[in-house]
Amino acid sequence: MSDMRIGGLASGMNTDQIIKDLMNAERQPLNKMEQDREWLTYKRDAYRDVNKQLSELDTMAFDMKLQRSYNSKDVSSSGSAVSATALSSADEGSYKMEVTQLAEAAYNYSQGEISKDGFDPDKSMFDQKDKFENGINFDADNKFSFSITTYNEEGANEKMFTVDETSSLNDVLKDINDSDLGVRAFYDKGSDKVMMERTETGDFNPEDGDFLGAEIGFNGQTSPFLADTLGIKNGVQKADGSWEKAEQGGTKAKFKYNNSFEMTSNTNSYSLNGINYSFNEVGTSTVNVFNNVDDSFEKVMSFVEKYNEVIDDLNGKTEEKRYRDFQPLTAEQKKDMEEEEIELWEEKSKSGMLKGDSVVSGALSSMRQNWYSPVETDGEYSMASQIGITTTSNYREGGKLEVDEDQLRQALRDNPDSVAKLFSGTDANPGIARRLESSIENATQSIERKAGKPTSLDNNFMLGRQIESINDDMSSFQDRLTAIENRYWREFGAMEKAIQKMNSQSAYLMQNFGGGM
């Protein structure tokens, strides 16, 4: 079909408009297919919106199965020596903790100044050999090596370092820092000393172990760079000829639990019976653990509010009015409308997509039933009404919940474990939250069979296959319209030629008759 067609030159008729009007009539079935496709898209999106809401409720239902949702604990401490947090498994009560020693990181540093005037820690040490107070030794290849050993719960960790003629002091210290030894090393120009310290607290190398029990160990004879050049000693010889460790720190925390149980920790924290203790200073504190009813209450209330929100919305969808006179707009119709007009029209057009829908109605009925049925547990509560949660008396609200807040708080205060069992139950005897999960799963799967997920291919769900089928029909019908339009142009073209021929013959006859008079 040509894009440039001019008709009516002989007949004087507006051929283009005539054919356009004829094609508008021919295109009506295609417009209907486009509207049907758009309607299916509306319905697909309405279903997916339901699944999105059910998914959000399902996530909250999962949390309601967890014991920690009902046993949140608060902790107070009588002093600054110890602070603590508690897991839901912690028992209520008072716990005395006496800290006699804090855990410290081991550290060692130069025993004297290491350089002379003009030394630059960022320049090559080889080029500054004469600027070290105690000298520095390079081998024939202008290199030297040294090793450092540190300790952790897994045992010893030794690393070898090689220094060449291009290395500066800061280069070497950076290599130590970047290793997995867990050592932080730096040079302080003001004191003209090098400090090495462990990045974690604790005492992992026993006193009778290597390097006099140091946490940062090295052999002063085989590593003269550390011991001599940097003046960092593993040990100091006493007057009686024995050696004592020069390194400082590297201690465990020592503490006594409830005046009797003496323990140690390589860090200033310790977990015991669901309570996480933090040691801040030497001293004694009494830690009190008690149920946080407010936190548990808010979790239950948030779940109820979300449930009511979903119930309210889904009930609205199944009862929403369907405006059948507001068919989905085609692309051609939208061209002649303002944006606000389109929005208002589509609001009416999308209304009532799930009116009376059996899947959504079935899900609502199933979820309501979950709150009515007793739960078989060994706890005190077997019905939601026993903890103050009931359905409203107004049947028009479709099973929304209402809460007696005082009764719920009392239940959480008196027996939070029984409240947890009411919502969770077991696989054999599911509680309210488990039942809701099952109802949501069934509804979600039914909806996905109809409307799929946002990531689903169209041929994997019912509405998608229907949309694909309409797309195929529209493509075929468009080909047919093209053929019809081409036929109209041929027919009008033939008419124009016939009229043009008649006009020519008429002119010829008029000329001849006129010439004979």
Mean pLDDT: 89
SSE order, one letter for each helix or strand: HHEEEEEEHEEEHEEEEEEEHHHHEEHHHH
Indicate the proportion of strand residues.
15-25%
Number of helices: 12
Radius of gyration over alpha carbons? 43 Å
| DSSP helix fraction | 40-55%
Number of strands: 18
Structural class: alpha+beta
Describe the largest sheet: 5 strands, antiparallel
Strand arrangement within the widest β-sheet reads: 1-16-3-12-13
Could you say which overall geometry the principal axes of the C-alpha atoms support?
flat
Which parts are unreliable, with pLDDT below 50 for 5 consecutive residues or more?
none
Say what oligomer this is. single chain
Question: How far apart are the first and last residues' alpha carbons, in Å?
Answer: 49 Å
How would you sum up this structure, described in words?
With 517 residues, the chain is α+β, with helices and mostly antiparallel strands. It contains twelve helices and 18 strands. It has helices spanning 15-26, 28-64, 169-178, 224-229, 293-319, 331-335, 339-350, 358-372, 405-414, 416-424, 432-451, 462-516, and strands at residues 73-77, 82-86, 93-101, 107-109, 144-152, 155-163, 183-188, 193-198, 216-217, 235-237, 243-245, 253-257, 261-265, 269-272, 275-279, 283-291, 389-391, 401-403. It has a five-stranded antiparallel beta sheet with strand order 1-16-3-12-13, with no helix packed on it. Strands 2-15-14 form a three-stranded antiparallel beta sheet, with no helix packed on it. A three-stranded antiparallel beta sheet has the order 4-8-7. Strand 5 and strand 6 form a beta hairpin. Helix 1 (15-26) runs antiparallel to helix 12 and helix 5 (293-319) crosses helix 9 (405-414). The longest helix has 55 residues, at 462-516. The radius of gyration is 43 Å and the shape is flat. The chain starts with 14 loop residues before the first helix and ends with a helix. 26% of the residues are buried. The model has no long low-confidence stretch (mean pLDDT 89).
